[in-house]
Design a protein that fits this description.
The protein is of the alpha/beta class. It has 24 helices and 28 strands. Helix 8 (184-199) runs parallel beside helix 10 (244-252).
């Protein structure tokens, strides 16, 4: 589209006045920067203050048995230009109808945005994000997000509130399930992969969607692991731990960022101009939309930094929060603030420009109906290739925690198999929480997957006990089934409503009487495989000591049953690795691998060192841990040079050999420690990983490059520098099992 065409469109709009929607403004998503500027400026010049603030207002939708519906009065608000976007709405036909109201019956004809929490799939549900991170497979994670975008956009969704990129070191926090775990390097890689998947080949295509990096920032650092709580962290911790995944998401193309509910150093994030306007927009150059979390602007009042909704709105908009989700504060209170001179017109206009540009790059000013396609909606829903992808990603997300005596894989010719536990027959648990438009009846549960995998075996099921209750009346049935079986699959853990938002726990133990159930089943004396379903690490020391085989299966989505059966019966060799540390007890929390040393590091032979008197200080299962049905051996890491300059690079190479009897994939992990620095450094930091597939007896040289980006730190003056001195590299199959080498960065 030429500049002349854009200007003619704007001129026609100007001449028609109230009949604006009769000639809706149009511009292609591929227009030049100059054309875009002219279009947005021309449109902005025609808007009333209320219409501008309407673009910054997001309203909720609702779902019922009859389908999607807007709240009463919302259709008239659309006609008046008082709504810029909707939350929680999907459905091709229904969203087309609302879009038609905005395009053809409002004065300005500005299209709507439809946003939805597409977290780990839309209709085809993939593993929860914490589980996907356990795959350590960036291509798989990107593919998951791509499938989700293809399905969601056919239903009319333009904008997803994902990925959640919060680093979480406290598994009590319920939302750990939505992220990639405890490490900023792994979290950054996963964040970028998910954004790439949502974006696909570019936002001008109708099967791609606007991605939102959330929750900015340090939401995962909530005190006590309690959701919505204060996060009191230093600038150094922000820079080193919590900010990197957000920067990675922005650099990958995230078009939206959502502030967190927490405060940092006395400033709630929805009013934190220093981090939003300063770091996000100023340092990183982010020019996309900042959308509040649900009623986040309104909550500045109970936070105690605003006395009234009007003050809250002024604080938030000045801090850089463009869109007010749900609370309507911008629309209802800010016109008075602007007219009274308490809020600048330029601040409002800057936010509106960002929202209009988002709609423009999505192609909505060219064709507002292109996303909502009933025919494509039917074609992509649960498509065979989507289900196949969900099964592949699910089995790669499974972590084999323990396998003493080679109990796994189970033989397919077993005569009798007992499947025990309420979660085994719970399809809703299989798809987990925040499951998009997923339906439990479309999922394959654990019990179904096992029965399908071994049709000739006698598979008996006993519920045993509920997940949370204290009823032990089913124990006898479970014990009888176990005693009569050749092997037992015992499914334990949490139901999905025990994790995710507002579902923090004070305990990490198995809830209810599940541990007692495990003891009764174990007493039958048969080979037992425990399958854990949970959205967080659980403290399971008794199981780890007594049960020979333990599988962390998380919530794996629509294809959970087949994927888990693939692993249990050896059709797929597990390769998952933990993205988060498993503590022995909640009393160790927070516990994470990349901690700092103290002046008195733990020493079992010295009382006056940093440890506990009642449990070891070490984790039950460390970050990066995960077993295979084969074994791998690591050679000594080799460096291509021993000395580099501050701007130099060193390549680390290690030979990895499959020393077992079957093919398998290994996630090779590289960690680095700055041995002596101007400020304290972590004992080790993940700086590279690569998954390699090896046949029995096969070896492969795996190389990693370390340069300034991997070696830099924030110095005393908070400058990003590489300091001279020695660095130790660690290479291995987990953060606890590594081989070492050392090199030197020389002073300039």
């Amino acid at each position: 589209m030429s500049r002349f065409t854009v200007l003619v469109s704007v001129l026609l709009v100007t001449l028609t006045g109230a009949a604006f929607a009769a000639v809706p403004p149009r511009i292609a998503a591929t227009a030049s920067a100059a054309e875009v500027d002219a279009f947005v400026d021309g449109l902005l010049a025609r808007m009333t203050l209320e219409e501008k603030l309407g673009q910054l207002t997001q309203r909720p939708g609702r779902w019922s048995d009859t389908g999607p519906r807007v709240l009463e009065g919302s259709e008239d608000e659309i006609r008046r230009g008082e709504i810029g976007s909707f939350l929680g709405m999907y459905g091709a036909e229904y969203t087309r109808g609302l879009q038609r109201l905005a395009r053809e019956e409002s004065r300005l004809g500005i299209p709507l945005l439809f946003a939805y929490d597409v977290i780990h799939g839309f209709r085809t549900i993939f593993p929860v994000p914490l589980a996907e991170a356990a795959s350590w497979d960036l291509e798989a994670v990107e593919r998951s997000a791509r499938v989700a975008a293809v399905e969601a956009t056919a239903y009319g969704v333009h904008w997803t509130y994902a990925p959640m990129v919060d680093v979480a070191r406290d598994p009590r926090w319920g939302r750990i399930v939505e992220g990639a775990g405890e490490d900023p390097f792994l979290g950054s890689a996963m964040a970028a992969a998910r954004v790439r998947g949502f974006l696909g080949a570019g936002l001008e295509r109708s099967d791609t969607m606007l991605a939102t990096a959330k929750h900015f920032v340090a939401y995962g650092g909530a005190e006590g692991g309690r959701d919505y709580n204060v996060a009191d962290v230093s600038e150094r911790t922000l820079r080193e731990v919590y900010l990197p995944p957000f920067r990675a998401a922005v650099e990958a193309g995230a078009g939206s960022v959502m502030p967190a509910f927490n405060e940092i150093a006395g400033i709630p994030m929805h009013a934190h101009g220093g981090l939003i306007n300063g770091v996000l927009r100023g340092e990183w150059g982010f020019d996309g939309v900042v959308v509040s979390d649900y009623t986040g602007v309104m909550e500045l009042v109970p936070h105690g930094v605003a006395a009234t909704p009007l003050e809250a709105g002024v604080l938030a908009l000045r801090a850089g929060v463009d869109v007010d989700m749900v609370s309507r504060i911008y629309l209802e209170h800010l016109p008075d603030a602007v007219r009274a001179g308490a809020l600048e017109d330029a601040t409002v206009d800057a936010a509106v420009r960002r929202v209009l540009r988002a709609k423009l790059v999505l192609g909505l000013f060219d064709d507002p109906y292109v996303y909502a396609d009933p025919e494509r909606e039917r074609a992509v829903t649960l498509a065979p290739d989507h289900l196949a992808a969900a099964r592949e990603v699910a089995r790669d997300s499974i972590v084999l925690l323990r396998n003493e005596g080679g109990v796994l894989p189970l033989a397919k010719d077993l005569g009798r198999i007992a499947v025990i536990g309420a979660l085994a027959d719970d399809r809703a648990a299989a798809i987990g929480n925040w499951a998009g438009a997923g339906r439990a009846e479309e999922a394959v549960g654990v019990l179904e997957g096992i029965r399908a995998a071994v049709p000739d075996a006698e598979v008996t099921y006993a519920r045993g006990a509920g997940v949370r209750d204290d009823d032990t009346s089913g124990f006898d049935e479970a014990a009888t089934a176990a005693a009569a079986a050749d092997a037992v699959v015992l499914v334990l853990g949490e139901d999905p409503e025990m994790s995710a938002e507002a579902n923090s726990r004070s305990s990490l133990d198995l809830p209810g009487v599940q541990l007692e159930l495990a003891r009764r089943v174990h007493a039958a004396g048969k080979p037992v495989v425990v399958v854990l379903m949970a959205g967080r690490p659980l403290s399971i020391p008794w199981l780890a000591e007594n049960v020979p085989a333990i599988v962390e299966a998380w919530y794996l989505g629509t294809q959970m049953g087949p994927a888990l059966a693939d692993v249990l019966f050896g059709d797929h060799n597990p390769s998952g690795k933990l993205p988060v540390t498993f503590p022995r007890t909640v009393g160790q929390v927070p516990i994470y691998y990349n901690h700092k040393n103290t002046g008195r590091p733990p020493n079992p032979d010295s009382k006056w060192t940093s440890k506990y008197v009642d449990v070891p200080w070490t984790p039950l299962y460390p970050f990066g841990h995960g077993l295979s049905y084969t074994t791998f051996a690591y050679g000594e890491p080799r460096l291509d040079r021993d000395v580099i300059g501050a701007a130099g690079e060193v390549t680390v190479t290690v030979t990895v050999t499959n020393t077992g009897a079957r093919a398998g994939a290994e996630v090779v992990q590289l960690y680095v420690r700055d041995d002596v620095a101007g400020v304290t450094r972590p004992v080790m930091e993940l700086r590279g990983f690569r998954k390699v597939m090896l046949e029995p007896g096969e070896s492969e040289d795996v190389s990693f490059r370390l340069g300034p980006e991997e070696l830099a730190m924030w110095d005393l003056e908070m400058r990003r520098v590489v300091e001279p001195g020695t660095f130790t590299v660690f290479v291995g199959g987990s953060s606890a099992v590594t081989r070492q080498a050392r090199f030197t960065v020389e002073a300039p």
